[in-house]
Specification:
about 55% strand, mainly beta, 9-stranded antiparallel sheet, about 120 residues, single chain
């Protein structure tokens, strides 16, 4: 059974068990951040993903997908190259655009629930 075939379900995000998702060392600016995550649902065509993602303190760079996420715990500053600097913490919703080049300064281990749309 694939995730798009699953029936409706609920997950308690703060306690969800996540799997290691190693960063590309080229993304790490400072510190020793570690990433874990879990895809909860994926569309049949693989272009829609819903899941949970977590990162420990440090500074990393990324090129974003089209994403909506809600922070469950932790705090970070997300600087969008040529755009806004976003301060995010518990309860904050954030929208990132496909192609945004970002620098994440993670102050406290951040856990988020996300929905990504791929091209």
């Amino acid at each position: 059974m694939t995730t798009h075939d699953l029936p409706s379900f609920a997950v308690h995000i703060p306690d969800a068990e996540l799997e290691a998702d190693p960063l590309d060392p080229a993304q790490i600016v400072s510190g020793t951040p570690e990433v874990t995550g879990k895809v909860l649902w994926e569309s049949a065509d693989g272009k829609q993903l819903r899941g949970i993602w977590q990162i420990t303190p440090g500074v990393v760079t990324d090129t974003e997908a089209n994403e909506l996420f809600v922070v469950v715990s932790g705090r970070a500053t997300v600087a969008v190259e040529g755009g806004a600097t976003l301060e995010v913490g518990p309860g904050d919703a954030c929208v990132l655009r496909e192609g945004d080049r970002t620098t994440w300064t993670v102050h406290e281990t951040l856990r988020k629930a996300y929905h990504i749309t791929l091209p």
